[in-house]
Amino acid sequence: MTSKLYQSPIYHTLLHSVKIGSVAILWSRQQGKPLIDRIVLSRPGISAEQILQVHFHESLPLCCPEIESVMNQIQDYLKGKPIVFHPDLIRLNQYTALQQSVLRAESAIPYGYVSTYQRIAEQLQKPSAARAVGNALAKNPFPLLIPCHRAVRSDFTPGGFQGGTAMKRHLLEMEGNKLDYYNRIVHPKIY
Predict the structure, then answer these.
(1) Which residues contact 143 (CB under 8 A, 6 or more apart)?
(2) How confident is the model at residue 84, as a pLDDT?
(3) CA 54, CA 132: separation in Å to the nearest integer?
Protein backbone atom coordinates (compact mmCIF):
# COMPACT_ATOMS: atom_id res chain seq x y z
CA MET A 1 0.00 0.00 0.00
CA THR A 2 1.31 3.44 -0.81
CA SER A 3 0.18 6.80 0.47
CA LYS A 4 -1.94 8.61 -2.13
CA LEU A 5 -0.31 11.92 -1.29
CA TYR A 6 3.32 10.85 -1.10
CA GLN A 7 3.66 7.51 -2.90
CA SER A 8 5.69 6.11 0.00
CA PRO A 9 5.27 2.70 1.61
CA ILE A 10 2.90 2.36 4.55
CA TYR A 11 4.26 0.55 7.60
CA HIS A 12 2.50 -0.88 10.61
CA THR A 13 3.52 -1.46 14.19
CA LEU A 14 1.41 -3.54 16.59
CA LEU A 15 0.78 -3.22 20.29
CA HIS A 16 -1.05 -5.90 22.28
CA SER A 17 -3.18 -4.79 25.21
CA VAL A 18 -5.08 -7.04 27.58
CA LYS A 19 -7.59 -4.28 28.27
CA ILE A 20 -8.59 -3.20 24.75
CA GLY A 21 -7.08 -5.80 22.43
CA SER A 22 -4.52 -5.08 19.77
CA VAL A 23 -3.74 -1.62 18.41
CA ALA A 24 -1.95 -0.92 15.13
CA ILE A 25 -0.18 2.25 14.12
CA LEU A 26 -0.04 2.78 10.37
CA TRP A 27 2.69 5.21 9.41
CA SER A 28 4.81 6.39 6.53
CA ARG A 29 7.91 8.48 6.01
CA GLN A 30 7.30 11.95 4.67
CA GLN A 31 10.43 13.96 3.84
CA GLY A 32 12.44 11.55 5.99
CA LYS A 33 10.18 11.95 9.03
CA PRO A 34 7.80 9.23 10.28
CA LEU A 35 4.18 10.43 10.33
CA ILE A 36 1.19 8.49 11.64
CA ASP A 37 -1.46 7.95 8.98
CA ARG A 38 -3.96 6.02 11.11
CA ILE A 39 -4.50 4.16 14.37
CA VAL A 40 -6.44 0.90 14.05
CA LEU A 41 -8.25 -0.40 17.12
CA SER A 42 -9.60 -3.87 17.63
CA ARG A 43 -13.38 -3.99 17.48
CA PRO A 44 -15.84 -6.45 18.95
CA GLY A 45 -15.20 -9.72 17.12
CA ILE A 46 -12.27 -8.48 15.01
CA SER A 47 -8.69 -7.71 16.00
CA ALA A 48 -6.51 -4.91 14.67
CA GLU A 49 -4.37 -7.61 12.98
CA GLN A 50 -7.41 -8.90 11.09
CA ILE A 51 -8.34 -5.36 10.04
CA LEU A 52 -4.78 -4.89 8.76
CA GLN A 53 -4.99 -8.12 6.75
CA VAL A 54 -8.23 -7.05 5.08
CA HIS A 55 -7.84 -3.31 4.58
CA PHE A 56 -4.10 -2.65 4.79
CA HIS A 57 -2.65 -5.95 3.57
CA GLU A 58 0.18 -4.24 1.68
CA SER A 59 1.48 -2.44 4.78
CA LEU A 60 4.87 -3.62 5.98
CA PRO A 61 5.75 -4.47 9.59
CA LEU A 62 8.35 -1.96 10.77
CA CYS A 63 9.08 0.31 13.72
CA CYS A 64 11.39 3.24 14.35
CA PRO A 65 12.33 5.15 17.53
CA GLU A 66 9.65 7.83 17.06
CA ILE A 67 6.85 5.30 16.53
CA GLU A 68 8.17 3.15 19.38
CA SER A 69 7.93 6.20 21.64
CA VAL A 70 4.27 6.65 20.65
CA MET A 71 3.64 2.95 21.34
CA ASN A 72 5.20 3.36 24.79
CA GLN A 73 2.96 6.36 25.45
CA ILE A 74 -0.12 4.34 24.42
CA GLN A 75 0.95 1.55 26.79
CA ASP A 76 1.41 4.06 29.62
CA TYR A 77 -1.98 5.60 28.85
CA LEU A 78 -3.65 2.17 28.96
CA LYS A 79 -2.06 1.65 32.40
CA GLY A 80 -3.96 4.74 33.56
CA LYS A 81 -1.26 7.37 33.26
CA PRO A 82 -2.48 10.77 32.01
CA ILE A 83 -0.47 11.19 28.82
CA VAL A 84 -0.66 14.11 26.38
CA PHE A 85 0.04 12.98 22.83
CA HIS A 86 1.71 15.62 20.73
CA PRO A 87 0.27 16.02 17.24
CA ASP A 88 3.61 16.62 15.50
CA LEU A 89 3.77 12.97 14.38
CA ILE A 90 0.18 12.90 13.10
CA ARG A 91 -0.52 13.55 9.44
CA LEU A 92 -3.64 15.73 9.52
CA ASN A 93 -3.17 17.39 6.13
CA GLN A 94 -5.04 14.58 4.38
CA TYR A 95 -8.36 15.74 5.91
CA THR A 96 -10.77 18.62 5.27
CA ALA A 97 -10.44 21.89 7.15
CA LEU A 98 -13.54 21.06 9.23
CA GLN A 99 -12.22 17.60 10.13
CA GLN A 100 -8.86 19.09 11.12
CA SER A 101 -10.50 21.75 13.30
CA VAL A 102 -12.70 19.14 15.02
CA LEU A 103 -9.73 16.83 15.63
CA ARG A 104 -7.64 19.70 17.01
CA ALA A 105 -10.49 20.79 19.30
CA GLU A 106 -10.93 17.22 20.50
CA SER A 107 -7.22 16.81 21.19
CA ALA A 108 -7.41 19.77 23.60
CA ILE A 109 -9.81 17.98 25.98
CA PRO A 110 -7.75 17.03 29.04
CA TYR A 111 -7.51 13.59 30.61
CA GLY A 112 -10.55 12.91 32.80
CA TYR A 113 -12.71 15.57 31.17
CA VAL A 114 -15.45 15.25 28.58
CA SER A 115 -17.13 17.57 26.15
CA THR A 116 -20.22 17.19 24.04
CA TYR A 117 -20.51 17.24 20.28
CA GLN A 118 -22.61 20.41 20.67
CA ARG A 119 -20.04 22.18 22.86
CA ILE A 120 -17.29 21.37 20.37
CA ALA A 121 -19.44 22.75 17.53
CA GLU A 122 -20.01 25.94 19.54
CA GLN A 123 -16.29 26.20 20.31
CA LEU A 124 -15.65 26.05 16.56
CA GLN A 125 -18.25 28.82 16.10
CA LYS A 126 -20.51 26.43 14.19
CA PRO A 127 -23.37 25.93 16.68
CA SER A 128 -25.54 24.04 14.19
CA ALA A 129 -22.75 21.58 13.32
CA ALA A 130 -23.03 19.13 16.25
CA ARG A 131 -23.88 16.29 13.85
CA ALA A 132 -20.93 17.17 11.61
CA VAL A 133 -18.67 17.16 14.68
CA GLY A 134 -20.03 13.73 15.64
CA ASN A 135 -19.45 12.43 12.11
CA ALA A 136 -15.88 13.78 12.02
CA LEU A 137 -15.13 12.11 15.35
CA ALA A 138 -16.78 8.86 14.25
CA LYS A 139 -14.19 8.79 11.45
CA ASN A 140 -11.30 9.92 13.69
CA PRO A 141 -8.28 8.19 12.15
CA PHE A 142 -6.24 8.65 15.34
CA PRO A 143 -8.25 7.24 18.27
CA LEU A 144 -6.36 7.28 21.57
CA LEU A 145 -3.92 9.89 20.21
CA ILE A 146 -6.82 12.25 19.50
CA PRO A 147 -9.11 11.14 22.33
CA CYS A 148 -12.50 11.07 20.60
CA HIS A 149 -13.80 8.90 23.44
CA ARG A 150 -13.93 12.14 25.48
CA ALA A 151 -16.71 13.53 23.26
CA VAL A 152 -20.13 12.42 24.46
CA ARG A 153 -23.76 13.13 23.69
CA SER A 154 -25.53 16.12 25.24
CA ASP A 155 -27.26 13.81 27.75
CA PHE A 156 -23.77 12.60 28.83
CA THR A 157 -24.22 9.10 27.47
CA PRO A 158 -21.06 7.93 25.70
CA GLY A 159 -22.33 7.52 22.14
CA GLY A 160 -20.48 5.41 19.59
CA PHE A 161 -16.82 4.59 19.24
CA GLN A 162 -14.67 2.79 16.65
CA GLY A 163 -13.51 0.22 19.18
CA GLY A 164 -17.08 -0.38 20.36
CA THR A 165 -19.15 1.12 23.15
CA ALA A 166 -17.63 -1.17 25.81
CA MET A 167 -14.15 0.14 24.95
CA LYS A 168 -15.36 3.76 25.08
CA ARG A 169 -16.93 3.14 28.48
CA HIS A 170 -13.71 1.47 29.68
CA LEU A 171 -11.58 4.44 28.55
CA LEU A 172 -13.94 6.95 30.18
CA GLU A 173 -13.95 5.00 33.44
CA MET A 174 -10.19 4.52 33.32
CA GLU A 175 -9.90 8.33 33.23
CA GLY A 176 -12.05 8.63 36.36
CA ASN A 177 -15.53 9.13 34.91
CA LYS A 178 -18.34 7.24 36.62
CA LEU A 179 -21.29 5.97 34.60
CA ASP A 180 -24.65 5.24 36.17
CA TYR A 181 -27.22 2.50 35.56
CA TYR A 182 -28.55 4.46 32.55
CA ASN A 183 -25.05 4.68 31.03
CA ARG A 184 -24.74 8.41 31.74
CA ILE A 185 -21.63 10.04 33.12
CA VAL A 186 -22.28 11.08 36.70
CA HIS A 187 -20.94 14.54 37.65
CA PRO A 188 -18.88 14.96 34.49
CA LYS A 189 -15.90 17.28 34.43
CA ILE A 190 -16.88 19.30 31.39
CA TYR A 191 -14.33 20.93 29.15
Answers:
(1) 39, 41, 149, 161, 162, 163
(2) 84
(3) 28
Between 19 and 100, the more confident residue is 100
Inter-residue contact 55 to 41 (CB < 8 Å): no
pTM metric for this prediction: 0.90
Is 64 one of the catalytic residues?
A: no
Alpha-carbon distances of 52 from 25, 48, 112, rounded to whole Å: 10, 6, 30
Using left for φ > 0, alpha for ψ between -120 and 50, and beta otherwise, residue 31 falls in left
- Rounded to the nearest 5°, which phi and psi values hold at 50? -65, -40
List pLDDT tens digits, range 99-145. 999 999 999 999 999 999 999 999 999 999 999 999 999 999 999 99
Is the CB of residue 62 less than 8 Å from the CB of residue 13?
yes
Q: What is the distance between the alpha carbons of residues 13 and 138, in angstroms, rounded to a whole number?
A: 23
DSSP one-letter code for 110: P
34 within 8 A of 89, measured Cβ to Cβ? yes
Q: Which of 74, 148, 151, 167 is catalytic?
A: 148
